[in-house]
């Protein structure tokens, strides 16, 4: 497993070992051949990337870029807005690190083919996220249907 981490923000200290632990938990036995890079950024940068690659002038929480389509190797880049995670955690009164880890898990699941485009797919994805977060020791709120 190869995990590269670029911390390009000043809103919250990123624990590199925690990110690697999350990758191992999400990928399980498939983590050996994985090549993932993470960029932890602020809202200005993630908005710029969202505009450039998705023609959306909005701040988003996480963007996942698959870098190949080999079935046996997961290779991608995940960009996380730590500023959004901090703002959301404070507003929702949840753990900041847990919110960041949620975005990391969400990005990895996108690279694995999970989708949240429609409500049914989103529920499957959110249930998987909740299960992984619980295993990692984070007690994050569950997402209700229709939210």
Strand order of the largest sheet: 1-2-4-3
How much of the sequence is in beta strands?
A: 15-25%
- The overall pLDDT average reads 91
Based on Cα principal axes, name the global outline. globular
**Secondary structure: number of strands:** 4
Gyration radius from CA atoms, angstroms: 14 Å
Total of DSSP H or I helical runs spanning 4+ residues: 5
As an assembly, this protein is single chain
Summarize the main sheet: 4 strands, mixed
Which segments are poorly predicted (pLDDT under 50) over 5 or more consecutive residues? none
Backbone structural class: alpha/beta
Order of helices and strands: EHEHEEHHH
N/C terminus separation: 35 Å
The proportion of residues forming helix, as a percent range, comes to 40-55%
Question: What's a quick, concise take on this entry?
Answer:
It is built from 5 helices and 4 strands. The chain is α/β, with parallel strands linked by helices and 147 residues long. α1 links the parallel β1 and β2.
What does this structure look like?
The chain is an alpha/beta fold. It contains 5 helices and 4 strands, in the order E-H-E-H-E-E-H-H-H. The protein has a 4-stranded mixed β-sheet. Helix 1 (16-27) packs across helix 4 (96-111) and helix 3 crosses helix 4 (96-111). The longest helix is centred in the last third of the chain and has 17 residues, at 119-135. The mean pLDDT is 91.
């Amino acid at each position: 497993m190869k995990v590269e981490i670029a911390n390009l923000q000043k809103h919250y200290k990123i624990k590199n070992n925690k990110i690697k632990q999350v990758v191992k938990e999400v990928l399980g036995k498939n983590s050996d051949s994985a090549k993932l890079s993470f960029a932890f950024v602020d809202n200005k940068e993630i908005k710029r990337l969202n505009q450039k690659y998705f023609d959306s002038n909005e701040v988003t929480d996480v963007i996942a870029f698959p870098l190949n389509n080999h079935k046996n190797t997961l290779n991608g880049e995940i960009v996380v807005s730590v500023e959004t995670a901090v703002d959301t955690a404070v507003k929702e009164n949840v753990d900041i690190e847990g919110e960041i880890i949620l975005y990391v898990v969400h990005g990895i699941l996108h690279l694995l083919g999970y989708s949240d485009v429609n409500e049914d797919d989103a529920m499957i994805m959110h249930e998987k996220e909740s299960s992984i977060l619980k295993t990692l020791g984070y007690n994050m709120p569950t997402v209700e249907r229709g939210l």
